[in-house]
């Protein structure tokens, strides 16, 4: 499929840690969203030399690349930057999907730019891209209970109660990605921030 364009295709990068031991972790919600988008579009994520599993698809009628880095979360940046260079994608068309502690479980927030808020995956991506001006689909996982270390919390699987709601959350986050591709950020924000 030809994904050429003046600004390149959209690049959707889902954040997580590779390997079956991490698959159900809260930190892997970005992987889950990219995997659902691949399922929706009939994509088959394949190994790319940029150290990511990727496929070229159409999202909301637009050329796009779905990507799941094969590196650990805290070094997600080099694969994202490598893919951006390979596909000649403008940083404004990069969408990063990630877990967010400061948003309640089940909520989704969309924004462009901003800090990393202690998120090592975002820190790595901002550093490697040399810019903060990419889009973010922030998927709420809530705060850890009691005095649990946030680093431990994000590396735990979703609770039994959360797992019942998880398919709906992943589905909504995938819809949010498609909405960002299809329409202005402000329109997508109005749609997904209302809930």
Automatic annotation (TrEMBL):
Q: One Pfam annotation, family name?
A: Pept_tRNA_hydro
Q: Where is this site: Discriminates between blocked and unblocked aminoacyl-tRNA?
A: 17
The UniProt record lists the keyword Iron: no
Where is it found, in Gene Ontology cellular component terms? Answer: cytoplasm
GO terms classed as biological process? protein quality control for misfolded or incompletely synthesized proteins; rescue of stalled ribosome
Q: Where is this site: Stabilizes the basic form of H active site to accept a proton?
A: 99
Which top-level group of life is the source organism from? Bacteria
Under Enzyme Commission nomenclature, its number is 3.1.1.29
Q: Which residues bind tRNA?
A: 22, 72, 74, 120
Q: Which residues form the signal peptide?
A: none
Q: What do we know about how this protein assembles, alone or with others?
A: Monomer.
Describe the task this protein carries out: Catalyzes the release of premature peptidyl moieties from peptidyl-tRNA molecules trapped in stalled 50S ribosomal subunits, and thus maintains levels of free tRNAs and 50S ribosomes.
Query: What's the name of the protein?
Result: Peptidyl-tRNA hydrolase
Organism of this sequence: Parafrankia colletiae
At the highest ranks, the source species' classification is: Bacteria, Bacillati, Actinomycetota, Actinomycetes, Frankiales
